[in-house]
Amino acid sequence: MNKCWYDNKTVILTGASSGIGKDIAERLIKDHGCKVIGIARNEERLLALKNSFGNKSDCFTYYIFDVSVKENWENFAETVKEENLKPDILINNAGILPKFDRFLNYTVDELDKAMHINFYSCLYSMNALMPVILQSDSAAVINIASSAALCSLAGTSVYSASKAALKSLTDAVREEYRKECYIGLVCPGFTKTNIFRNQGTPVGNKAQKAMDFISTDCDRMCNLILKGMKNKRADMVFGADAHLMSVGNKLFGTVCSHASSAVMKASGLDLFAKVFK
Asked: pTM of the full predicted structure?
């Protein structure tokens, strides 16, 4: 494999226990010789991931805490300094997709939870860790947002808002630290992960087949993200659906959101039923 600027670097990765985060951790360690510090709340999955690396298991360490709590990041930043960890890269990958629903059907707690996990966790981590990361010659922060940051969909009000906020934060900080740190933003489309775990009711076979049809394989999405990072791309939009949403929103504005709603409604899927009652 060709040499890459992030070979053998130390990476802090949130949401490392499953999905895209798990795949990224595996590639960074196995293909690039990185040391990965994984952060998540599921110790069983983190331990299983560590053990899966065999003789490279020392390359993966993990910390268990809720990324949506500011004090947890402040404490972790102190741990980083005390243990002299010297991270080069921060990848904010942890996120949650609330159930598809109308805005007024969400509780305030559900709204707060989505905003804190999807947006505030990144704000907290960057604020706490960038002073340390900026000391590296290969300083980098990569925030994984969503195609929903590019074009809002009905039924995803708080999710789209949280990801759009993350996009705006990333864009501004990139300009402020352009000469000191590579800051990338990833806006992936639907990806074949367990992203629908918070829908409240099981996703039916029809809905799952429909989502699988438009979704990108997790392995492929991981490859695209790492390739984009290798080339130090500022904005990364991956997945056919994400590109369609991005271009459609730029060309047609709110018409794109309206057209997307029409497609969702016409699909007749139970997944979107509450949105169009």
From this structure: 0.92
